[in-house]
Fold:
Amino acid sequence: MLLTCHEVRPETADVTSFFFHSDADVDFIPGQFLTLLVPIGEQTSARAYSLSSVPGEPRLQLTIKRVPGGRVSNHLLDALRPGDALEAMAPAGAFHRDTAGEGAWLLLSAGCGITPVFSMLKERLAREPDADIAFVHSARSEADKLFPAELEALAAAHPNLKLHWVIGDDPRPELLEGRLDAAQLAARVPDLAGRTAMICGPQGYMDAVKGMLSDKGVAADRIHSEAFLAPEVAEAPAADSAQGHSLAVDGIELPILPGQTVLESLEKGGLPIFAACRTGVCGSCKCKGEKDKLESSSVMGLTPKEIEQGYFLACSSTVTGDMALELND
Ligand SMILES: Cc1cc2nc3c(=O)[nH]c(=O)nc-3n(C[C@H](O)[C@H](O)[C@H](O)COP(=O)(O)OP(=O)(O)OC[C@H]3O[C@@H](n4cnc5c(N)ncnc54)[C@H](O)[C@@H]3O)c2cc1C
Ligand code: FES
Structure:
């Protein structure tokens, strides 16, 4: 689909929201992301961005943080202007409203990790004004708070939304102190164990928060998180054709070397497969195979049911034996 930028709105010194009109209906579940295909010079780069708007709004909103040295985020913040158009892939991702369910929520975000949970929060309250939601957002400083006016307005209008800011450089006692700790979290949100937690932020923050929640008795199946960084792909061992395996696809047999990804083998064999991000994020290279013969460094965006059915990401998977696979149409 083609997205045309309609408005650019700076949110903080290094975060900007972009509002788009799409040439097609965009059906998404709050919490999901779009993959933008961004041409810069000769090369087109694919990057995932969570939708911070809610379904049904006339415009799609993406809220993007400038990553120091980052190729795409800096380009978008410096160059994308109203009237510019970008290709995007359909929304995807398993970190969303339906994963969180209909019970009491604990939304935890840090920095730009607010985007998916902000969409979930707005949609749930519009549907269910009395929903029981605790929202704890961490920002580096007062000036780095994202969507403060909209969040305060929601908290004022919905008494069952309990909003807590954690401000890194602000020691006021009515705020949670600069760094979230388990005792403070439990004091502000006493019924932690009865909530489903949705966490998004830098990896260190998410690891720390998950540890706090486990220590306070929140069951592992009620803790969900989403990383904004693609998983590390393990260094491939040196290829040795003598030990390779084979892939059977639509009656064609292809060699796959040790350490070679399924994507690399399919591309080398000239088979039609589209891979936008090549880092296990966008889901465009999804295929179906035999799960006991696969080693995958990412299953991002695949649902537990799809994984059970044998779906995997070709860009992030190697095989441990000869395997038959189906390309995804
Ligand atoms: C599911 C998902 C949803 C996302 N949603 C959003 C969103 O709503 N808003 C948003 O701003 N970003 C979001 N991201 C991150 C986004 O996709 C890009 O990774 C980010 O914009 C950096 O891209 P870049 O090309 O500027 O950096 P790159 O050129 O890819 O990376 C440059 C350097 O920065 C590091 N780096 C990359 N991303 C980050 C990061 N987020 N934090 C710290 N270091 C980083 C890289 O490891 C590398 O060393 C999301 C990512 C995923 C996987
Ligand atoms: S190409 Fe994006 S997940 Fe494989």
